[in-house]
User: Fold these one by one.
Assistant:
Number 1:
Amino acid sequence: MSATVDSDQAVRVCASDELGRGEMRAATLGRLPAVVIRLQDGTLHALVNRCLHHGAPLSRGRLSHGSRGQAGVGDYSADDSVDALRCPWHGYEYDVRTGCTLFDSERRLRRLTVWEEDGSVLLAP
Amino acid sequence: MTATSQTTTETHAPGPARARTEIVDVDVHERAALQELVPYLEPQWRRYITEYGWQPERLLPYAQPTAGGLDRADAKLPDGRPGGSDLGLVREQLLDLYDIDTAVLTGWLNASALGAGWPEFKTGLMSAYNDWQVETWLEPEPRLAGSVHVNAHDPVGAAREIDRMAAHPRIVQVMLYIGDRPFGDPVYEPLFAAAARHGLVVGIHHSENSPTALGHHRLFAEWHTLVSQVFMSQTVSLVFNGVFDRHPELRVAMIEGGFSWVPHIMWRSDQQWRELRSEVPWLHRKPSDVIREHVRFATQPIEEMTARQFLGLIEQMESDELILFSSDYPHWDFDSPERALPPGLPEALTGKILAGNARATYRLPDGA
């Protein structure tokens, strides 16, 4: 938990065992839509649940790996160093850990603070 | 203190609250499972599905490499049915969420984009689809307008179907999906004559069987980038083959091809008309004038641009009445009515694109 989090603003998302590895779920923080993600390595991440493009709910998208392609045309190797969240509509991909789009690191979703405490997943601005 | 969050399955968080803006969406896809159409088929055609196992051919050599395939991932039904299969979800994700005034249904399974085989069966299948559409969608939901689906490979049968369906008060369009044939060919004259006779718009829509000018490239991204090519072909075909000269009241809506290519086609067509008019002596006006009078262009998949670039296109088209908003719900490249147009456009222009131009084209009552 970040030392800067105001715990008065925290909300409970779900029980810890209700969010498995490789899963995500939608939540709200006040009026702010959020998507809370537990990656395969067990780490928790939270982003604003609204695609920068057309506003789609990212929690209805897909968690996936990145794609390399450095070898040129025809290279479809997976990039497991990137955990991507893919928009359910037009397919914008975001790095779950940074909130940045994979096509432009200057375009970034707001990250929220998420942690576990006493068997619950908690979320704060 | 820790409050309890409302964990939600809400499908979309709308953008900032907007003032009440009329919206007419001219491209919303409802979808039938083939088995749903069987009861609506004439008895002689039912065995084509129940016994012969006919399926529409799909010529696209790729699937949509998106989170949900053809559909928005959140528009698929929990039971596995594709997007557009359930009126309740269409209401929730589109009509109610965006406060849509009128949505024009554009359907699925239009035989005009399929092969020419079994034309009588396919004409019958379109009749079944139309009856299913009226009963399942138009009758229970007054915000929907409908399209008559026809089999262009059977132009006389298509005209007969248009005559049969046109009396329905919320049928506003004849639907043609694009395969590999230009619709300006006089062989299609009976169906255009029927549409004009009944005052219906002819909607021409992209399909998975629409090729590019070079067939199918290696990648889906190439194919989808080039969807506008077949719309250029169809626009030029209709204009140069005199469809609008024969039917001065006819309106055509080009749906799912964007619009930024329109100035190019206007300029190039005018140039060719001036230079080669001896080949088209029946064309008495310059093509750009014909296009401005008769052809409209739906926005989706909208070419993303700045307001300044957008206004430049309007100036180049010499009309602000040619563009109609469309979302293409429930497909993966759905354009939100709140996000499709660039910020900073004049309010009057936005109003025309979101509703006014479609109302005029489809002759929809104001505010209905």
Note: Chain B is about 35% helix and 10% strand.
Number 2:
Amino acid sequence: MILVFCETKDGSVRKPSLEALSEARRLAGAAGVPLGALFVGAATAGAEEAAQFGADVILKVEAPSLAAYSSDGYAQAIADAVQAKGATVLLAAATSLGRDVLPRAAARLGAGYAADVTGLALVDGRLQVSRPVYAGKAFATTQFETPVQVATTRPNIFTVTASAKAVSVEALKAPEGGFLAVVKEILTKGGGHVDIAEANVIVAGGRGLKDGANFKLLEELAEALGGVVGASRAAVDAGWGLPHSMQVGQTGKVVSPTLYIACGISGAIQHVAGMSGSKIIVAINKDPEAPIFKLASYGIVGDLFEVVPELTKAAKALGIGK
Amino acid sequence: MKILVALKQVPDTETKIKVAADGKSMDWSDVKWIVSPYDEYALEEAIRLKESAGAEVVAVSVGGDKTRDVLRNALALGADSAVLIRGGETGDPLAIARVLAAFAKDQGFDLIFLGNKGFGGDNASVGPMLAELLGVAQANVVTRLEILDGRFRAEREGDADSEVLEGSLPAVITAQRGLNEPRYANLKGIMAAKKKTIEEVEAAPVVATVATVTLALPPARPEGRRLEGDPATQAAALLGLLRDEAKVL
């Protein structure tokens, strides 16, 4: 079996989990093995949605002790599920939670692990993956040497594909409580609560914005294009009140949007590490020598304070973000 | 309190990556080696706990002769002792975690600090794996840490927000940027570090759990296009291209 650990949010399966599930469906179909979708929590509302995306069986591990996330509690639940179902491949989206719990589950299972993969295949029944290394400066193809293989999938790489099937639902035994570490509180910080790593369109600003208030220009453009706003480290560090969750780069987030518009961003290696996976990159910068232009499919050498509002105006006129 | 800080020696992040002739490993010639950037926050947090709570700090790294530089620097920054675990860089996080677990087990560490991710493999997994192998609590990508009596309280980064978690000691904590401001070694520290002995142990034998089949540079991007004209013209041209040529809108 291929087992995908899925997360829900507000009663629906999170998009990165659906992406992982969809890719697992392709693998499972080609290999002729069953696909399980695993949910862990107090009451896993929304789990049934996995049936729309190709799961053969939905597995639920439910207990009050699992209401709040615990890395060791959830790792135990996930490892137990892998063993109970004899799964040989365990996947999850490389979200903050996925990256926190899956390596722990892998160690518990004595299983090889690869994080943030951008390509997956089954070779002779065993998982083989492609993934960025050295902050995306190279790509490695990795094979596994253990009976169980574990990987997390980078968000916004795999396509969500609906494939409804008849599904069975199974409840699995939950681990006893008394976990070693438990989440007590969620703190929402800064502006939007959108995870930029899940966005398809990102309008990002750097030092060239000169002031936090000027990010409003980028918000307007982002809204007109149906996207979100990101920032370079320089902007986040400048004391403009921008939250770290907006930061794209080596010490921020890695994003893979379809469209990345870099405004007033020079394109330092550390920033590029976070956005080089973008499908189409647009650069708007006063400096014609800015390194970002080497990466951009389309470049505008100009004053972003003039260009960005023009783009917003034109985008609205064309009704693009609708 | 006894604290272990596990450090990783990595190529400088500005390094131009070259693939070796075997097509599956790095060409290490002309590489400048540094301590992995996130590890600096890990070490700094340990030193601060030493200063505030009188902890003993042990620095450890898995590597070879050149890895001594990282350990020497850790001593200069305030670590009480340093140990080199002789072993190769395998790019296999579970293998490394097992080596560290074999070293740390039964040594009575209350806290184990690592950077949340080691530049290179970028798996961000040695920390959580080590916690599981030792049967202790973990907190990863931590931006704020409080040590209480036998417990810790940590703030960690989520996807769009932060979470506060609490757990028992011993614990493995992996550091994120923003946890603290790492200090620079001063002359006194550097001189004192020169007199200290870096212990050496052999790594426990490891079995590979993953292996790199190929390593390649990403495909080169085709040359981009510069848009001409006044801002309004450029804007209109760009949107047209994005919609009709790139087909992303």
Note: Chain B is about 30% helix and 30% strand.
Number 3:
Amino acid sequence: MLANWLTAGNIQLTERVDDWQDAVRQAAAPLLAQQAIAPDYLQAIFHSHAQLGPYYVLAPGLAMPHARPEEGALKNGLSLLRINQGVSFNSAENDPVYVVIMLCAVSGEEHLNMIGELADLFSDESRLQQLLSATTLAAIQAAISQPSVEKTP
Amino acid sequence: MKKVLIVCGNGLGSSFIVEMNVKKILAELGKTAEVSHTDLTTARSETADLILSAQDIADRLADHSAQVFGLSNLLDNARIKAILAEHL
């Protein structure tokens, strides 16, 4: 269950952030506190953004910053930052970003399940829109907990 | 068998999510293909028939022998379905 990863403590809501780097840092805060990631992990995200652009901005309003397991991931984990005013990630067609989901994965079966559940959430248009428009903790939790209606073939 | 490669910056998160969606879409289309995901560096030396990736990454794979399709919205399954239906 995604809700087991995105616990209340790993979901943050904020009115605004200074810039996308600020958004990434704030999204990382609970994972840093839980020692799910090392500070290097943030540097790796900033480095790959500088090298490759904002490729981790998946869709309008949604970013999923992450780095490779060996770049400072210590445990599997997820965090979510909701930014009410949105922020630019320099991703022309997907800005502004309202929801930042940080992903860290060490490896193994567990992280496959975690990413698989994210895929289910993101590919269900109604759940995704529900998540992107949620402005309270309860509404975010409802969006991530709602079982997918789409059947996998 | 045709091979579809999903490429992202580090071959871990975004490309994996798209791979799962591509597998569902291929089943809907009744097509079979080998589907895998990888990072940009590895992708340069891999062969494939069709590559899907974020637009930023696709620009760096322009010289790849595969047909390369960049997606500004990686979760746009209707677009992915149209690409696979037409080009695979």
Note: Chain A has a mean pLDDT of 92.
Number 4:
Amino acid sequence: MTTVGSPEIELLLNAILLLLMVVAAIGVIRLRNLFAVVLLSGVYSFLMATLMVALDAVDVGMTEAAVGAGMSVVLLLSVLGLTRTREAPTRRRPIVPLIISVVVGIALVHGTMDLPPFGDPNAPAQRHVAPEYLARAQVETGAPNVVTAVLASYRGYDTLGEVAVIFTGGIGVLVLLAGLGRYTGLRTRPPGAPDPGPEPKPVPLMEETVVLRVAVKLLLPLILVFAMYVQFHGDFGPGGGFQAGVAAATAIILYGLIFGIPAARRVAPMRVVLFMIPLGVLIFAGTGVASLLLGGNYLDYSVLSSVPRSGQHLGILVVEFGVFVTVSSTMLGIFYAFASRPPRDGPEPS
Amino acid sequence: MDGVLEVASWITLILGGAFCVVGGIGMWRLPDVFARLHAASLIDSLGIGFLALGMALQAGLSLVTLKLVFIVLLVGLTSPVATHALAQAAMHAGVKPRAIESPGAEEDA
């Protein structure tokens, strides 16, 4: 898609977006109501996503919109269910952090002076490997979206690392929050212990509003279809496993928000989620092992098929599916872990 | 014909922008949650509607227009629902519309 419009308009647009981001950031700092802070951080992320789209980085923009503006806000709001909604006032005057922030900020701004101007064709980033990727991606992988080709194939190691980071983060959150069994529904009672009875059922306030129920039931299939589209169209257009994983998790989370967590758990049980979190990493890493066994390098998909190009295509598809599995289940697992905890002023866990 | 379309599209775009601004001012100035919700709903019904119409007139009969139609349908489905949910939540939390809270409010205004 070509960008229509003059460079001045684009500059103005970027300046306005950045200015609004500064305003949102100041709001986040100044406000004491944590609900407003969470929503403002969502606004900040959405502005960031818009800026990314304006800079023609649609894949990144999509991820930012899905993760930053969508998922993080939901997760932070479910955290707010567990804490107070007003920031506790601090007595100490934050002089030292202020000085550190100002100094680091000045250093960073000073650092940007040496950066090449945006879009400079002679910048080192454009001259190192990028031209080669651009020239070869189409021929070697057959994926029209170069971003996907770079992400899944040329830079497969990096992406494997990212998936491993998400995996580690998800497991870390689950262990910290839940001890992996306490709130996740995997609690195993010691033999002979009395049955604790059904878990305290949170009051599904939203379930009583017909409008929400109907609207969500209309939206859920659309969201899931969109997630699948983003997943499998990632070779051709913007999108891929990361974005699709978050979108699919959003569908389940929306269902859980409206119909209650137990209902969502019947759709996507915690057992399945906990199984899927490592499964995606294994699919990704296993593709690498498969290419090793077939005589290629690790994560060199060309050997997966008799035709190198279709091998690359197959590899990218499988690897993106692995990313999808891990990302979606991690998001869902973290949401369950937060949302299933009894609220602060509710009954204490036994 | 082209000129007519151009003028029509700019009029609708400006109208949409004006509705967004009015909605924003309303969210800033109106006294309580429900009135502010009313102002906000102006943005995503008339504001987005007119803006999308203006952009569709610019794009003509193309894929872009189809996408705009989908966007309008999506916003038209989700934003009233969100407004409804917000109002419901506010009622549930015990927020009373100001007009009910103080019967003399109409005379003051």
Note: Chain A has two domains: 1-86, 144-189+203-350.
